[in-house]
Amino acid sequence: MKFSTLSILSLVYATTVLATPSFPSFPQRATCSNGRTASSATCCVWYNVLDDLQANVFDHRCEEDAHDALRLSFHDAISYSPNLQRQGKFGGNGADGSVIKFFDIEMQDPANEGLETIVTAEKELADKYGVSYGDIIQFAGAVSVRNCLFGPRIAFMAGRPAATQAAPPGLIPAPFDNVTTMLARVGDAGLTPEELIDLLASHSVASQKIIDETIPHTPFDLTPEIFDNNFYREVLLTGLFTPGSTLHTGEVKSPFPNEFRLQSDFALARDVRTKSHWVSLSLNQLLMQSRFATAMAKMALIGQNSGILHDCSEVIP
Ligand code: HEM
Ligand SMILES: *[C@@H]1O[C@H](CO)[C@@H](O)[C@H](O)[C@H]1NC(C)=O
């Protein structure tokens, strides 16, 4: 008898606790395709974009299309200049997808050479699924990193409105810019010198095809499919080799015959303003990964009103 009284009591207790309105209820999750769920139904579409992007653009790999998608996420976002706005000119809206919407204008900027294929592929996906160009660029950038071994997860916010105007030319840093120019440019867009160094972890999964067109796919480090800190270490080594037949504008000698070194990376690794942070990332891969993820999430919101966006980070693999 004692036992059953206890049972009834605990049953009553459990029922009361579970029914108490102040007890936090389990949030209702939306059901998406293939049995997946999301905190909000508005995020479901991104699972479908993810499947298509991975199968038909990236081939689930950390190779050229993934690298281009990552590079594109920078070029779209960095095209934002409060300095120009203060001069009464249009300064761009940052990560707004203007490079897709105003393809004919922005793809004439030499800085965007080589990105035609990925821009076209992302435009098709965005149109097919009815998502914005600004969103697809930052989404594809975040997904691309997950295809690389050790690539960290980057937060993804959805809901960027359509671009209204082409971004002004000249806002994307060039490999022949000096450090003062590069820091001023990214500072104008809201990034600190340390954040620029953090973002350059992207060059650990990067290669060139435009600066020296005779040697496409020459990587910036020896392991361009792995998101590791070899890149930061290798840029610190003495330059000895020219991978092509001559050095080109924006190129300096690299430590290995089959490696390409950008003058910008070389200069940032040695400038008094950025050297210590560069060295600290070269020594600490976990720091490099976490700082990259944080800086990327910030970059993805440049020029955007985060208050109107919603968090769909759970869709990033
Ligand atoms: C000072 C800033 C930067 C400069 C001057 C710079 C310059 C360059 C140049 C010249 C290339 C080679 C393009 C080619 O010849 O195909 C390149 C490739 C690349 N960049 Fe940057 N970059 C900078 C920052 C960034 C940032 C912040 C990101 C991403 C967050 C990024 C991602 C990439 C990627 C992934 C590639 C490889 C593309 C491929 O392999 O096809 N870069 N960058
Ligand atoms: C950096 O480049 C800018 C633009 O070309 C130039 O005006 C400036 O003098 C250069 N600064 C240094 C320190 O070389």
UniProtKB/TrEMBL annotation:
PROSITE patterns assigned: PEROXIDASE_1, PEROXIDASE_2, PEROXIDASE_4
Residues engaged in binding Ca(2+) 2: S204, D221, T223, D228
Plant heme peroxidase family profile domain residues: 70-316
Official protein name in the record: Peroxidase
Subcellular location: Secreted
GO molecular function: heme binding; metal ion binding; peroxidase activity
E.C. designation(s): 1.11.1.-
Cofactor note: Binds 2 calcium ions per subunit. Binds 1 heme b (iron(II)-protoporphyrin IX) group per subunit.
Record flagged with keyword DNA-binding: no
Binding site for heme b: H203
Primary location class: secreted
Cysteines paired by S-S bonds: C32-C44, C43-C312, C62-C148
Keyword Calcium: yes
Enzyme class: oxidoreductase
Signal peptide: 1-19
InterPro entries recorded: Ccp1-like, Haem_peroxidase, Haem_peroxidase_sf, Ligninase, Ligninase_C, Peroxidases_AS, Peroxidases_heam-ligand_BS
Active site: H75
Keywords noted in UniProt: Calcium, Disulfide bond, Glycoprotein, Heme, Hydrogen peroxide, Iron, Metal-binding, Oxidoreductase, Peroxidase, Secreted, Signal
